[in-house]
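Posting here for the record, re: NAP.
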Amino acid sequence: MKKTVMVTGGTGYLGGWVVKDLLEKGYTVKVPVRDKNKESKYAFLKDLEKESKGSLVIFEANLLDEGSFDEAAKGCDAIIHMASPFTLRIKDPQKELVDPALKGTRNVLNAASRSGTVSKIVLTSSVAAVHGDSIDMTEQGLSEFSEKQFNETSSLKHQPYSYSKVLAEKEAWKMAEGQDKWKLVVINPSFVMGPSLTESSNSESLNFMKEMMSGKYKSGVPELQFGFVDVRDVAKAHILALESDKAEGRHILVERTMSLLDFANLVREKYGDKYKLPKSNTPKFMLYLLGWMFGFNARFIKRNVGHPLSFNAEKSKKNLGLKYTPMEKTAEDMITQMQDFGIIS
Ligand code: NAP
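Prediction output follows.
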């Protein structure tokens, strides 16, 4: 029998790849969207359905509206809950980040409980729910972060996106413990790169690459370390977590950790000087003066710039069997897609 899965956030950068993979595998995929009239947001999913053996059903739901996922959850075997705003360009962190993340998680998980059919939920969390600032690692006496850690340093005022992710993931674990209808498995991706299937996502992954390629950092880049992972591997990890009976707990996804300058150098290796990529790190003292240009305040700079960062992603390989795409291929495929979409030449 064909299985039915609801994917919240299916219109997004990561969500598009998850929906594609599920449709190709023959699943019935229910995708709730905020406004069914805005067909341009999900037209690419309909095109993917046509080329697949699966079927797509579009519903209307909003993370902020209680009960709005109930209809879509009815009859589903499982839910992949990805929807959550991934933006750093906000004015009101409570309204724009925490409410949709936290209320949305409660809403979707309650819909699962009420459905009577959902037996598994795969939640898209983040390494932002594992740690807040890079300095947390040395402050906690660690040489790397693993699935054992939860972010304890973010707040509404400091790293509010990360705060929204840790609140949502903790709430999901609390709700999972209070019931026995469905099992929760969590995926904690690092910074996601790679081609996008949609032109309408506002994901910071896409914004970052646009800025990097269009020369925003040409005179220097902040010395920040990130874990990086391919968007297609993140989608695969969700499907592996969905389909494996043994999958349990959290899963950090990182292909490698490197600085933004290392990432720029990796792109330069392939494209030479075609793009205005940074060739140096901006000195930290300059960032204290010019940090506003990057949207950084002094606390962020102090706790992140120039600090080492490391993750242990072994569980994703051992337990899920995930094989990582090298970041060189990820970046190349992303740049090709950006050229195809006319974002860069
Ligand atoms: P994205 O393209 O902006 O996707 C966000 C999705 O959430 C979109 O489908 C969006 O719908 C939906 N959404 C936002 N607010 C909503 C609301 N109030 N009601 C219903 N749906 C709403 O971002 P992404 O990068 O793919 O991120 C997807 C998930 O992965 C998020 O949970 C994010 O925290 C997590 N994540 C991302 C990264 C990364 O580097 N990109 C890393 C780790 C974790 P619309 O189409 O209507 O806007």
